[in-house]
């Protein structure tokens, strides 16, 4: 599954409100995760025209530029599958970001490939993203 991931610069909450109205949908309130200070969103999920979409506030990862707005999330059944695919795509990445455990995934991380495509890889087992 590939999941579009929209990044905002501190106004993800406002964007969610607009998208809810425009697309006649609602964000999954149980899946919204705020940063420790509670001011920005680190993870949110909503359905837009039947497609799962992730949303968050951009946290300035070294691979992201100021005009970065979308990246593609690829889910894997296992951490081994994720790491095998990552090892192929990261061939030119001398400073790979760490993959980490989160409330929504056993293993997840983001990186940009040599073509400039931003990828988010995650193991999908913790809950259904559809």
Written overview of the protein:
This protein has 130 residues and is α+β, with helices and mostly antiparallel strands. It has one domain (2-123): 2,3-Dihydroxybiphenyl 1,2-Dioxygenase, domain 1, CATH 3.10.180. It has helices at 12-23, 79-89, and strands at residues 2-8, 33-34, 41-48, 51-57, 70-76, 100-102, 105-112, 118-123. Strands 2-3-4-1-5-8-7-6 form an 8-stranded mixed sheet. Strand 6 and strand 7 form a beta hairpin. The radius of gyration is 15 Å and the shape is globular. The chain starts with a strand and ends in a 7-residue tail after the last strand.
Topology of this structure?
Elements: E1 2-8, H1 12-23, E2 33-34, E3 41-48, E4 51-57, E5 70-76, H2 79-89, E6 100-102, E7 105-112, E8 118-123
Number of domains: 1
Level-2 CATH architecture:
Roll
Placed side by side, the strands forming the largest sheet appear as: 2-3-4-1-5-8-7-6
Instruction: Specify the helix fraction band.
Output: 10-25%
CATH topology: 2,3-Dihydroxybiphenyl 1,2-Dioxygenase, domain 1
Number of helices: 2
Portion of residues in beta strands equals 35-45%
Please outline the major beta sheet: 8 strands, mixed
């Amino acid at each position: 599954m590939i999941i579009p991931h929209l990044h905002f610069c501190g106004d993800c909450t406002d964007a969610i409100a607009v998208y809810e109205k425009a697309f006649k949908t609602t964000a999954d309130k149980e899946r919204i995760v705020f940063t420790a200070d509670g001011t920005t969103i680190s993870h949110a999920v909503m359905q837009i025209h039947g497609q799962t979409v992730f949303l968050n506030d951009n946290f300035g990862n070294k691979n992201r530029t100021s005009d970065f707005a979308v990246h593609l999330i690829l889910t894997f059944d296992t951490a081994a599958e994720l790491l095998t695919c990552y090892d192929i795509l990261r061939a030119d990445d001398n400073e790979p970001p760490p993959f980490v455990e989160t409330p929504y995934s056993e293993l997840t991380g983001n990186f940009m490939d040599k073509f400039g495509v931003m990828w988010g890889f995650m193991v999908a087992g913790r809950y259904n993203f559809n």
